């Protein structure tokens, strides 16, 4: 389980950092949007976003996802719904600290849930063979 969660965290980290860097350059957040974009500016934005997103995923999302999994291990029928609900709820909680990043936090927590469920399905199919 922990190995799957680490892979989920890494995949979510790379996917979300790439998507957010492409869609919302740092210049837009700071109100200093400059029209010409080149690779070096994109790379700088990617590095800056990766620091914050990585800290959020690895220090907040990963441990809480492991706790959610341990709590809901015994519930078979409602596990999918409650896991999704807890991931969504824990994605909303940073609203109270950094309200501006709540949308990013919710999107990343849902992406984490989706990637985790895909990896869970792949693992369960490989064990059945």
From TrEMBL:
The chain crosses the membrane at residues 7-26, 46-68, 80-97. It comes from the Bacteria. Keywords: Membrane, Transmembrane, Transmembrane helix. This is Uncharacterized protein. It comes from Cytobacillus stercorigallinarum. The lineage of its organism: Bacteria, Bacillati, Bacillota, Bacilli, Bacillales.
């Amino acid at each position: 389980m922990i190995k799957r969660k680490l892979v989920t965290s890494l995949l979510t980290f790379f996917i979300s950092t790439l998507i957010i860097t492409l869609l919302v350059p740092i210049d837009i957040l700071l109100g200093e949007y400059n029209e010409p974009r080149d690779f070096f500016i994109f790379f700088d934005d990617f590095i800056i976003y990766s620091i914050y997103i990585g800290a959020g995923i690895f220090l907040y999302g990963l441990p809480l996802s492991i706790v959610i999994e341990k709590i809901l291990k015994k519930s078979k029928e409602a596990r999918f719904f409650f896991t999704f609900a807890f991931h969504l709820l824990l994605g909303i909680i940073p609203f109270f600290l950094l309200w501006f990043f709540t949308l990013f936090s919710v999107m990343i927590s849902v992406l984490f849930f989706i990637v985790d469920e895909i990896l869970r399905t792949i693992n369960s199919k490989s064990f059945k063979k």
